[in-house]
Design brief:
It is a multi-pass membrane protein. With about 675 residues, this protein is α+β, with helices and mostly antiparallel strands. Helix content is about 60%, strand content about 10%. The strands form six sheets. It has a four-stranded antiparallel β-sheet with strand order 11-10-12-13, with no helix packed on it. α3 crosses α4 and α14 packs antiparallel against α17. The termini are far apart.
């Protein structure tokens, strides 16, 4: 099919006024974003339930990965502009990207090291190392191609296709959100399936394998269209020039720090000895915007936790919406859905209404409100967490333990524990709870009993033995020889039960009445719908902060410095994720709701600081300033030329005067 499209499109250069090559780029972007967001959607649950990391460790590694994904674009931009060019950079790093995705899929196959075939890997180090290598390659790949694909698509348009170029970037943005939306719906469903060669476990390998396949498709599609692309040669990276100019200015200023040297109006003016004045003026405009970026990482600190802390929060909630059962990692789909809804509403309704009310809702004020909305989102998350904590069991501390007492006999038993009142245990009953596992079947019969469900066969349960398995709603079938019976029960999400099979069990239609059930942990009772308000506020904050921030940055930067601001913007995202890492590892706040309140308070404080900085900011028109600067430079050049011309004329007059005086002296000497 791909080759058919290639031969069809290769015969024509344009389709509906658009370059044919951009269709391959759009498909490539959709598949790549599906691959990235699909893998990322289930990543924190993979850390917690497959690699057996605690919440803090899973959160820390998750945000370290996201931070790397936003640091590597700077490297990708430098390589593309200074060395390989955009096309080769996309190809080479996409190969690295695909290898990383495949590595992640392989790392999630539990059967590779499951030597005893109990469903748990026996060499967890192998899976951890493999997954870390995969994540590093993915971060290098996705970050490296991030600044190249959109710019490469823009290069395909000619000067007379400006309208088509704008439409392309709109479609490009829709592909990003479309890929994100579909992947965050599909990959959690794949993860929830059971798969395996020797034992059935949650299928993280499939959840990572499908994104890996989509990345391979993205690479193939991009390569197929290679003959149709316009491939601009690398012309040097403006970021390198900016860094060199700033470095020279700092070095030169330090060299002339003595009071004997006159002060400059701006510290960047110390670079005038080596660099062009126009470049220095452009860097000054960029530095004004970058100064405003200083408080911005705190917004991303909160925003990116929707893929870590909020997903972990959803694991303790009830996702049953009636006809639809939502997985914890599927709640992230609320974000792209709301983005596609709120962006047009904000642009066509909210902002115009605010303008009609006579309020000057400037971009920096929008960003300030976006920060406030994100802080409100975390207050909502804290309130939800408080409700969840009310339903959680009381876990033992490091100095405590829990005891489960089972009466396996046919008569009541009285138990006396030191420091406790006497306990009376009826026959075939369970007292207290052990909370380490989700389901237990205790066989009190004198014969071996097999237990199975439609999803799995638990095998034989011998006398006084137990078997544990994670389930939600199932019908259990018990059989011994030719005798069997079925046990039906509704199980709530997050619950834990112990099933006691007494020695008096009689197989038949009434056998279910003989089985004793102890509810060790109550099911999740806080509904997942309570997370919708926090997703709404964080998404509304994203629209007002992120979209407006990029628009503001581009409007305040010179045309050749937009890449520098893009790198600076991505750098704030990386720093924000590192802040989460620091808090998760160092703060060690025992209550999760308190951590949410801490983050909300920090963002509120940063919001106040940012609003003060924004108040004193003066908006500029870089295009007009550049034009005026170039005009003044030209006038200075003309003045220099006129001065040089006047100097030349004076010298000629002097020379003529000297010559005339010389001739008069010769005449006098002749007369003498």
């Amino acid at each position: 099919m791909v080759w058919f499209l290639y031969f069809y499109f290769s015969k024509c250069k344009e389709v509906c006024g658009y370059p044919v090559s951009i269709f391959f780029i759009v498909v490539n972007e959709f598949c790549e974003r599906f691959s990235y967001y699909g893998m990322r959607a289930v990543l924190v649950l993979y850390f917690k339930y497959f690699l057996r990391w605690d919440d803090d460790m899973a959160t820390s590694i998750y945000h370290t990965f996201v931070a790397l994904c936003y640091l590597t674009p700077i490297l990708g931009a430098i390589v593309a502009d200074s060395w390989l060019g955009k096309f080769k950079t996309i190809i080479y790093l996409s190969v690295v990207y695909a290898i990383g995705q495949i590595t992640m899929a392989v790392s999630a196959i539990h059967d590779i090291t499951d030597s005893d075939r109990d469903g748990t890997p026996n060499n967890m180090t192998f899976h951890v190392v493999l997954s870390m290598v995969g994540l590093f390659l993915i971060a290098l790949g996705t970050g490296g191609i991030k600044p190249c694909v959109a710019a490469f698509g823009g290069d395909q348009f000619e000067d007379h296709q400006e309208r088509q170029r704008r439409t392309f970037f709109s479609v490009f943005y829709l592909c990003i959100n479309g890929g994100s939306l579909l992947s965050t719906i599909i990959t959690p469903i794949l993860r929830a399936q059971n798969c395996g060669i020797y034992s059935q476990q949650k299928c993280y390998s499939l959840a990572f394998g499908v994104p890996a396949a989509l990345m391979l498709v993205a690479l193939v599609v991009f390569i197929v269209g290679s003959g149709m692309y316009y491939k601009a040669e690398p012309q040097g990276n403006i970021m390198m020039d900016v860094c060199k100019c700033i470095g020279f200015a700092v070095k030169n200023r330090y060299r002339h720090r003595s009071k004997q040297y006159p002060k400059k109006q701006h510290w960047m003016d110390w670079a005038e000895d080596k660099y062009d004045k126009l470049l220095i003026a452009q860097i000054k405009m960029v530095l004004k915007v970058l100064f405003l970026y200083i408080p911005l990482p705190m917004f991303w600190t909160l925003f990116d936790q929707k893929g870590s802390r909020w997903t972990l929060q959803a694991t303790n909630m009830d996702g049953n919406f009636g006809l639809l059962v939502i997985q914890p990692d599927q709640m992230q789909t609320v974000n792209p859905i709301l983005i596609l809804t709120l962006v047009p509403i904000m642009d066509s309704l909210i902002y115009p209404l605010i303008g009609k009310c006579g309020l000057n809702f400037t971009p920096l004020r929008r960003m300030t409100v976006g920060m406030l909305l994100a802080a409100i989102a975390f207050i909502c998350a804290a309130l939800v967490q408080i409700e969840i904590d009310k339903t959680l069991p009381t876990f033992p501390t490091s100095s405590q333990s829990q005891l489960k007492l089972l009466n396996m006999g046919s008569n009541p038993v009285t138990v006396k524990l030191p420091g406790y009142d006497a306990l009376s245990l009826p026959a075939a009953q369970v007292y207290f709870c052990s909370i380490s596992l989700n389901f237990r079947f205790v066989n009190g019969m004198n014969t071996t009993v097999n237990v199975s469900t439609p999803a799995a066969n638990f095998g034989q349960i011998v006398l006084l033995n137990r078997f544990s398995f994670l389930l939600i709603r199932f019908t259990f079938k018990l059989w011994s020889g030719s005798q069997s019976c079925e046990y039906n029960r509704e199980f709530g999400y997050g619950s834990s039960y112990t099933f006691f099979i007494p020695n008096t069990l009689v197989f038949g239609s009434t056998c279910q009445e003989s089985i004793t059930v102890a509810e060790d942990i109550k099911p999740n009772s806080v509904h997942m719908a309570l997370q919708i308000p926090q997703y709404f506020f964080i998404t509304a904050g994203e629209v007002m902060f992120s979209v407006t921030g990029l628009e503001f940055s581009y409007s305040q930067a010179p045309s050749n410095m937009k890449a520098v601001l893009q790198a600076g913007w991505l750098f704030t995202v990386a720093i924000g994720n590192f802040i989460v890492l620091i808090v998760a590892e160092l703060a060690k706040i025992p209550k999760q709701w308190a951590e949410y309140v801490l983050f909300a308070s920090l963002l509120f404080a940063v919001c106040v600081i940012f609003s003060i900085m924004a108040y004193f900011y003066t908006y500029i028109d870089p295009t007009e300033i550049e034009a005026q600067f170039k005009k003044s430079v030209n006038e200075d050049d003309e003045d220099d030329k006129s001065k040089k011309l006047q100097k030349t004329e004076v010298e000629l007059v002097k020379r003529d005067s000297i010559n005339s005086h010389g001739e008069e002296d010769k005449a006098r000497q002749t007369k003498m």
